[in-house]
Design goal:
Radius of gyration: 17 Å
Strand content: 15-25%
Distance between the termini: 6 Å
Shape: globular
CATH architecture: Alpha-Beta Barrel
Strand order of the largest sheet: 1-2-3-4-5-6-7-8
Oligomer: single chain
Order of helices and strands: EHEHEHEHEHEHEHEHH
Helix content: 40-55%
Number of domains: 1
Number of helices: 9
Structural class: alpha/beta
Amino acid sequence: MTPRFFDIHAHVWDPAFNEDRNAVIARMQEKGVASIMIGTDFKSSQDSAMMASFTDEGIFASIGVHPIDDIEARFLVPLFDQLTEGKRVVAVGECGLDYSRLDEVSDVVLEKERQRKLFEMQIDFALAHNLPLMLHVRDSDKALADAHHDILAILREKKKEAGENLRGNVHFFSQTFAIAREYLVLGFTISFTGVITFSREYDEVIRLTPLDSIMTEPDSPYVAPAPYRGNRNEPVYVEEVVKKLAEIRGEDFETVRAATVQNALRVFNIVV
């Protein structure tokens, strides 16, 4: 059955859901919300893959290593290879570059190189398994867009070799349309969170981005949308993101809802 909504980025394995995880999943199924559980290291990737495997429908997994959540975390290919055996593993990530804490490291050049190597390993892994990427990109300063520029340079080089096989989504997009356009040219989509329900900062990029290149995510348990701000976020709140997208774009809710679901099914190669 085609889901009614698609949350492409959730962390329901997070301890914030330990008390009522099954109830959260039940609410998702009640509302027709499909979701991709996101790994940030091997353990959470394993948890995501297991959650997807043991749920009847509507839950999928993305496996990978976040650039800075744990700088000791490694992308061990044989271990992640095993996780791809699950038929509901649909992406690699969240992976990418995060320069938001460079002021905390002793050697910025070495730290950037560490992140780059980690990211490139996951690009190669995604290509080897014909999976899209789930990108995490955070700049040291929005005006500089330094992490985005570096990731785009990496992706352009990889694209020369991989062509259309290199694809994916930029999670929690928070840059300008000029940056968004660079990803769109490479065949990537961008996704928006509940931040758009209480900040007008992204209205222009939402209006200018083609609807077939937009996806939706609350990024639970973080950043709950209005009217749930201050509470734990969860996948069913993706409906609020869809509502706000339709409002900002001046389009029919049903049109935006259906398009964002189809975009997720297409990019993550999910057959329902």
